[in-house]
Protein backbone atom coordinates (compact mmCIF):
# COMPACT_ATOMS: atom_id res chain seq x y z
CA UNK A 1 0.00 0.00 0.00
CA UNK A 2 1.26 3.44 -0.90
CA UNK A 3 2.70 5.58 1.86
CA UNK A 4 0.60 8.82 2.07
CA UNK A 5 3.67 10.70 3.32
CA UNK A 6 5.45 10.11 0.00
CA UNK A 7 2.43 11.49 -1.85
CA UNK A 8 2.31 14.61 0.34
CA UNK A 9 6.02 15.18 -0.29
CA UNK A 10 5.39 14.84 -4.02
CA UNK A 11 2.55 17.40 -3.92
CA UNK A 12 4.72 19.84 -1.98
CA UNK A 13 7.60 19.39 -4.44
CA UNK A 14 5.36 20.13 -7.43
CA UNK A 15 3.92 23.21 -5.71
CA UNK A 16 7.32 24.56 -4.54
CA UNK A 17 9.09 23.58 -7.79
CA UNK A 18 12.33 23.23 -5.85
CA UNK A 19 13.85 20.45 -3.73
CA UNK A 20 15.50 22.77 -1.20
CA UNK A 21 12.34 24.84 -0.59
CA UNK A 22 10.32 21.65 -0.29
CA UNK A 23 12.72 20.26 2.29
CA UNK A 24 12.53 23.47 4.33
CA UNK A 25 8.73 23.51 4.14
CA UNK A 26 8.43 19.90 5.31
CA UNK A 27 11.28 20.17 7.85
CA UNK A 28 13.18 17.50 5.97
CA UNK A 29 16.59 17.28 4.34
CA UNK A 30 16.91 17.58 0.56
CA UNK A 31 18.11 13.94 0.31
CA UNK A 32 15.03 12.95 2.29
CA UNK A 33 12.76 14.61 -0.27
CA UNK A 34 14.62 12.89 -3.10
CA UNK A 35 14.28 9.57 -1.31
CA UNK A 36 10.48 9.96 -1.07
CA UNK A 37 10.25 10.67 -4.81
CA UNK A 38 12.43 7.63 -5.62
CA UNK A 39 10.23 5.44 -3.45
CA UNK A 40 7.14 6.68 -5.26
CA UNK A 41 8.75 5.92 -8.61
CA UNK A 42 9.81 2.47 -7.40
CA UNK A 43 6.30 1.77 -6.10
CA UNK A 44 4.55 2.80 -9.32
CA UNK A 45 7.36 1.53 -11.58
CA UNK A 46 7.29 4.80 -13.46
CA UNK A 47 9.34 7.98 -13.84
CA UNK A 48 7.38 10.85 -12.29
CA UNK A 49 9.72 13.80 -12.92
CA UNK A 50 12.42 14.58 -15.48
CA UNK A 51 15.23 16.64 -13.95
CA UNK A 52 16.86 19.44 -15.94
CA UNK A 53 19.19 22.37 -15.33
CA UNK A 54 16.29 24.58 -14.22
CA UNK A 55 14.71 22.00 -11.92
CA UNK A 56 12.32 19.35 -13.20
CA UNK A 57 9.25 18.69 -15.34
CA UNK A 58 6.39 16.32 -14.56
CA UNK A 59 6.00 13.33 -16.84
CA UNK A 60 2.54 12.18 -17.94
CA UNK A 61 2.77 9.48 -15.27
CA UNK A 62 3.72 12.13 -12.77
CA UNK A 63 0.64 14.19 -13.65
CA UNK A 64 -1.57 11.14 -13.06
CA UNK A 65 0.03 10.46 -9.68
CA UNK A 66 -0.31 14.14 -8.75
CA UNK A 67 -4.06 14.09 -9.47
CA UNK A 68 -4.45 10.93 -7.43
CA UNK A 69 -2.38 12.37 -4.55
CA UNK A 70 -4.47 15.56 -4.42
CA UNK A 71 -7.73 13.63 -4.49
CA UNK A 72 -6.46 11.42 -1.67
CA UNK A 73 -5.55 14.42 0.47
CA UNK A 74 -8.95 16.02 -0.13
CA UNK A 75 -10.72 12.75 0.71
CA UNK A 76 -8.72 12.44 3.92
CA UNK A 77 -9.63 16.00 4.95
CA UNK A 78 -13.29 15.37 4.19
CA UNK A 79 -13.18 12.20 6.26
CA UNK A 80 -11.57 14.04 9.18
CA UNK A 81 -14.25 16.73 9.02
CA UNK A 82 -17.08 14.21 8.80
CA UNK A 83 -15.74 12.40 11.87
CA UNK A 84 -15.82 15.66 13.80
CA UNK A 85 -19.41 16.34 12.75
CA UNK A 86 -22.28 14.61 14.50
CA UNK A 87 -25.43 16.17 13.13
CA UNK A 88 -28.49 15.07 15.15
CA UNK A 89 -30.73 15.61 12.12
CA UNK A 90 -29.10 13.32 9.56
CA UNK A 91 -27.85 9.78 9.18
CA UNK A 92 -29.09 6.20 9.29
CA UNK A 93 -31.07 5.29 12.43
CA UNK A 94 -30.86 1.56 13.14
CA UNK A 95 -33.39 0.67 15.84
CA UNK A 96 -35.40 -2.38 16.80
CA UNK A 97 -38.21 -3.32 19.18
CA UNK A 98 -40.73 -6.14 19.72
CA UNK A 99 -43.95 -5.99 17.71
CA UNK A 100 -46.30 -4.55 20.32
CA UNK A 101 -43.94 -1.70 21.06
CA UNK A 102 -43.27 -1.18 17.35
CA UNK A 103 -46.92 -0.39 16.68
CA UNK A 104 -46.66 2.46 19.15
CA UNK A 105 -43.25 3.78 18.11
CA UNK A 106 -42.92 3.35 14.37
CA UNK A 107 -45.63 5.87 13.38
CA UNK A 108 -43.81 8.45 15.51
CA UNK A 109 -40.52 7.61 13.78
CA UNK A 110 -42.17 8.20 10.42
CA UNK A 111 -43.29 11.64 11.56
CA UNK A 112 -39.73 12.46 12.71
CA UNK A 113 -38.33 11.45 9.33
CA UNK A 114 -40.93 13.56 7.56
CA UNK A 115 -39.79 16.56 9.59
CA UNK A 116 -36.08 15.75 9.12
CA UNK A 117 -35.69 14.06 5.70
CA UNK A 118 -31.94 13.50 6.17
CA UNK A 119 -32.73 10.99 8.94
CA UNK A 120 -33.16 7.50 7.50
CA UNK A 121 -35.24 5.26 9.76
CA UNK A 122 -34.13 1.64 9.53
CA UNK A 123 -36.52 0.01 11.97
CA UNK A 124 -36.81 -3.72 12.59
CA UNK A 125 -39.52 -5.59 14.47
CA UNK A 126 -37.93 -8.48 16.36
CA UNK A 127 -38.24 -10.48 19.59
CA UNK A 128 -36.12 -9.45 22.55
CA UNK A 129 -33.52 -12.21 22.16
CA UNK A 130 -32.84 -11.31 18.51
CA UNK A 131 -32.54 -7.61 19.36
CA UNK A 132 -29.86 -8.46 21.93
CA UNK A 133 -28.03 -10.60 19.36
CA UNK A 134 -28.13 -7.84 16.74
CA UNK A 135 -26.86 -5.26 19.22
CA UNK A 136 -23.91 -7.50 20.01
CA UNK A 137 -23.12 -7.94 16.30
CA UNK A 138 -23.50 -4.17 15.62
CA UNK A 139 -26.33 -4.83 13.16
CA UNK A 140 -28.40 -2.24 15.03
CA UNK A 141 -27.39 0.64 17.30
CA UNK A 142 -30.38 0.95 19.64
CA UNK A 143 -32.69 -1.74 21.01
CA UNK A 144 -35.90 -1.06 22.90
CA UNK A 145 -36.64 -4.31 24.70
CA UNK A 146 -39.17 -5.46 27.27
CA UNK A 147 -36.92 -7.83 29.24
CA UNK A 148 -33.80 -6.94 31.18
CA UNK A 149 -30.62 -8.46 29.73
CA UNK A 150 -27.56 -9.66 31.63
CA UNK A 151 -25.17 -9.36 28.67
CA UNK A 152 -22.03 -7.65 30.05
CA UNK A 153 -21.35 -5.91 26.72
CA UNK A 154 -24.70 -4.09 26.83
CA UNK A 155 -26.19 -1.30 28.90
CA UNK A 156 -29.94 -1.57 29.49
CA UNK A 157 -31.84 0.97 31.54
CA UNK A 158 -35.55 1.59 32.07
CA UNK A 159 -36.90 4.34 29.86
CA UNK A 160 -40.66 3.87 30.01
CA UNK A 161 -43.43 1.52 31.09
CA UNK A 162 -46.87 0.59 29.82
CA UNK A 163 -49.78 -1.09 31.56
CA UNK A 164 -50.74 -4.61 30.53
CA UNK A 165 -54.47 -5.13 30.06
CA UNK A 166 -56.46 -8.35 30.30
CA UNK A 167 -58.89 -8.36 27.37
CA UNK A 168 -61.96 -10.59 27.07
CA UNK A 169 -64.91 -10.73 24.66
CA UNK A 170 -67.46 -7.91 25.10
CA UNK A 171 -70.01 -10.17 26.79
CA UNK A 172 -67.70 -10.53 29.82
CA UNK A 173 -68.09 -7.32 31.81
CA UNK A 174 -66.75 -9.24 34.79
CA UNK A 175 -64.95 -12.58 34.90
CA UNK A 176 -63.52 -14.65 37.72
CA UNK A 177 -60.61 -17.05 37.55
CA UNK A 178 -62.85 -20.00 36.74
CA UNK A 179 -64.44 -18.01 33.89
CA UNK A 180 -61.03 -17.38 32.41
CA UNK A 181 -60.14 -21.05 32.69
CA UNK A 182 -63.25 -21.97 30.73
CA UNK A 183 -62.74 -19.20 28.18
CA UNK A 184 -59.14 -20.16 27.33
CA UNK A 185 -56.25 -18.07 26.04
CA UNK A 186 -55.31 -16.56 22.72
CA UNK A 187 -51.55 -16.87 22.41
CA UNK A 188 -49.19 -14.42 20.73
CA UNK A 189 -45.37 -13.99 20.75
CA UNK A 190 -45.33 -12.25 24.18
CA UNK A 191 -48.43 -13.95 25.59
CA UNK A 192 -46.70 -16.29 28.01
CA UNK A 193 -44.90 -13.43 29.77
CA UNK A 194 -47.81 -10.96 29.58
CA UNK A 195 -50.57 -13.30 30.73
CA UNK A 196 -48.51 -14.92 33.47
CA UNK A 197 -47.47 -11.53 34.86
CA UNK A 198 -51.05 -10.24 35.11
CA UNK A 199 -52.58 -13.45 36.44
CA UNK A 200 -49.85 -14.00 39.02
CA UNK A 201 -50.35 -10.49 40.40
CA UNK A 202 -54.15 -10.77 40.64
CA UNK A 203 -55.16 -14.40 41.20
CA UNK A 204 -53.70 -16.31 44.13
CA UNK A 205 -54.74 -19.64 42.59
CA UNK A 206 -52.72 -19.09 39.42
CA UNK A 207 -49.77 -21.47 39.09
CA UNK A 208 -48.97 -21.92 35.42
CA UNK A 209 -50.35 -20.90 32.05
CA UNK A 210 -50.73 -24.57 31.12
CA UNK A 211 -53.85 -24.62 33.33
CA UNK A 212 -55.68 -22.74 30.56
CA UNK A 213 -56.79 -24.26 27.28
CA UNK A 214 -55.26 -22.60 24.22
CA UNK A 215 -58.05 -21.38 21.95
CA UNK A 216 -55.92 -19.79 19.28
CA UNK A 217 -52.54 -18.30 18.38
CA UNK A 218 -51.64 -15.25 16.28
CA UNK A 219 -48.19 -13.85 15.49
CA UNK A 220 -49.34 -10.63 13.80
CA UNK A 221 -49.73 -7.99 16.46
CA UNK A 222 -52.57 -6.14 14.74
CA UNK A 223 -54.63 -9.35 14.53
CA UNK A 224 -54.28 -10.64 18.08
CA UNK A 225 -57.55 -9.14 19.32
CA UNK A 226 -59.61 -10.49 16.40
CA UNK A 227 -60.24 -13.92 18.01
CA UNK A 228 -60.95 -12.20 21.34
CA UNK A 229 -63.52 -9.96 19.65
CA UNK A 230 -65.04 -13.07 18.07
CA UNK A 231 -65.53 -14.58 21.54
CA UNK A 232 -62.90 -17.31 21.24
CA UNK A 233 -60.70 -16.53 24.25
CA UNK A 234 -58.88 -13.90 26.31
CA UNK A 235 -55.40 -12.45 26.13
CA UNK A 236 -53.16 -9.78 27.68
CA UNK A 237 -51.59 -6.93 25.69
CA UNK A 238 -50.01 -3.51 26.29
CA UNK A 239 -52.51 -0.67 26.60
CA UNK A 240 -51.49 1.05 23.35
CA UNK A 241 -52.25 -2.08 21.32
CA UNK A 242 -55.64 -2.51 22.96
CA UNK A 243 -56.51 1.16 22.40
CA UNK A 244 -55.58 0.88 18.71
CA UNK A 245 -58.02 -1.96 18.06
CA UNK A 246 -60.80 -0.54 15.84
CA UNK A 247 -63.72 -2.62 17.19
CA UNK A 248 -63.73 -1.52 20.82
CA UNK A 249 -67.42 -2.51 21.12
CA UNK A 250 -66.45 -6.18 20.68
CA UNK A 251 -63.96 -6.39 23.53
CA UNK A 252 -63.92 -5.67 27.24
CA UNK A 253 -61.04 -4.85 29.59
CA UNK A 254 -61.24 -6.51 32.98
CA UNK A 255 -60.49 -4.34 35.99
CA UNK A 256 -57.54 -5.75 37.91
CA UNK A 257 -56.91 -5.23 41.62
CA UNK A 258 -53.18 -4.88 40.93
CA UNK A 259 -52.07 -3.01 37.85
CA UNK A 260 -49.14 -4.65 36.05
CA UNK A 261 -46.75 -2.66 33.90
CA UNK A 262 -44.27 -3.75 31.27
CA UNK A 263 -40.93 -1.95 31.47
CA UNK A 264 -39.21 -0.77 28.31
CA UNK A 265 -35.41 -0.88 28.42
CA UNK A 266 -33.20 1.34 26.29
CA UNK A 267 -30.32 -0.92 25.31
CA UNK A 268 -27.05 -0.30 23.46
CA UNK A 269 -23.40 -1.36 23.40
CA UNK A 270 -21.49 -0.44 26.55
CA UNK A 271 -18.31 0.72 24.78
CA UNK A 272 -19.85 1.99 21.52
CA UNK A 273 -20.82 5.69 21.76
CA UNK A 274 -24.17 6.47 20.17
CA UNK A 275 -24.50 9.24 17.59
CA UNK A 276 -26.26 12.45 18.63
CA UNK A 277 -29.26 11.64 16.43
CA UNK A 278 -30.29 8.88 18.82
CA UNK A 279 -30.75 11.07 21.94
CA UNK A 280 -32.72 13.46 19.73
CA UNK A 281 -34.99 10.66 18.48
CA UNK A 282 -35.40 9.04 21.88
CA UNK A 283 -36.23 12.36 23.53
CA UNK A 284 -38.98 12.76 20.95
CA UNK A 285 -40.32 9.25 21.56
CA UNK A 286 -40.02 9.38 25.34
CA UNK A 287 -40.24 13.02 26.48
CA UNK A 288 -38.75 13.75 29.91
CA UNK A 289 -37.48 10.18 30.28
CA UNK A 290 -33.82 10.66 29.32
TrEMBL record:
Keyword annotations from UniProtKB, A to Z: DNA-binding, Transcription, Transcription regulation
Presence of the UniProt keyword Cell wall biogenesis/degradation in the record: no
A GO MF label: DNA-binding transcription factor activity
Alphabetized InterPro entries for the sequence: LysR_HTH_N, LysR_subst-bd, WH-like_DNA-bd_sf, WH_DNA-bd_sf
Transmembrane segments: none
Domain of life: Bacteria
Protein's UniProt keywords contain DNA-binding: yes
CDD domains reported for this sequence: PBP2_LTTR_substrate
Stored Pfam families: HTH_1, LysR_substrate
Residues of the HTH lysR-type domain: 2-59
Gene3D superfamilies to which the protein is assigned, alphabetical: 3.40.190.290, Winged helix-like DNA-binding domain superfamily/Winged helix DNA-binding domain
PANTHER family for this protein: HTH-TYPE TRANSCRIPTIONAL REGULATOR, TRANSCRIPTIONAL REGULATOR LYSR FAMILY
Family per record: Belongs to the LysR transcriptional regulatory family.
The name this protein goes by in its record: HTH lysR-type domain-containing protein
Source organism of the structure: Endozoicomonas elysicola
Amino acid sequence: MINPLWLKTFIALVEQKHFTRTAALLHMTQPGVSQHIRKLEDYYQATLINRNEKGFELTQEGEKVLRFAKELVVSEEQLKESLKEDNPYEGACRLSSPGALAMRLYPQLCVIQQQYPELLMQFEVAPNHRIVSELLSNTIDIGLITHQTDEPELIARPIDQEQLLLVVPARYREAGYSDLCLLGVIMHPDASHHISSVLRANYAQFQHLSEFPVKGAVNQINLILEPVAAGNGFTVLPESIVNAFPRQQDISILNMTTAVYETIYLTHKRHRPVASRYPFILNTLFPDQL
